[in-house]
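User: Fold this one for me? It's Carbohydrate ABC transporter permease.
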Amino acid sequence: MDKQLKSGGAFGLKFSRTIIYIICILLSLLSILPFWIMFVNATRSTAEIQSGLSLLPSTHFMNNLQVLLDKSFDPIQGFMNSFVISGSATILTVYFSSLAAYGLVTYDWKLRKPFFTFIMCVMMIPSQASAIGFYQFMYKLGWTNSFLPLILPAIAAPAVVFFMRQYLLATLSLEIVEASRVDGSSEFKTFNRIILPLMMPAVATQAIFAFVANWNNLFMPLILLTQKEKYTMPIMVSLLRGDIYKTEFGSIYMGLALTALPLFVVYFLLSRYIIAGVALGGVKE
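Assistant: Here's what I get for Carbohydrate ABC transporter permease.
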């Protein structure tokens, strides 16, 4: 009887595990499908795209690329501009947000809770609500047609500060900080040498989100940048549409595919840190 119960339980466990695997595979396929369709459409002509959906690549890849380059589309310049803005903004976002979260967790000062409440209130304000005032301020500073107003505001990222604070509350032991202070380590040295490596899974996660958000940002660069040589990839892709009589959809999908490629690279480079963090968090002493 006991053997039958054990065999039945083992069968039920295997069956439930199989169902979970099947669901995960289906969800993965659904997540990949839009990107696959985008890359497939980059190889199809406008007539083929308008005729209907296809999951098989066509033979118009080089033609779409040629049309893309004929429209004064400079992917190298666009990549460089987008990478400078996105890379710099991502570094500022994750570092200063981690530093702010470290201060909120380790220091016990009178206005700590009101300051955190203020950060939460700022997080609820959409960036579009302050776009006009921000543009007027940048215009008075002479920073229009500059990358600085697209990079420096990344220092203040309330949502990232909130995420980093929650991560530190769950993982950081204050005894480590106190031990480093006893050993004579400065606060910045403690943060850079001890705390920041411990936060690497959270940093990698937010770096992915920050890079994707800055890379895909179209609203503020379209307002601030008017010189063609400073256009980012999303601006260049948005300008690919032709007149009302003819639009080369194949070249548009080609531009979208080129724009999405760096996002895959960044994700695969940083995903190992996320996986390592999840595995580390699953080990309890």
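One thing worth pointing out: Confidence is low (pLDDT under 50) at residues 279-285.
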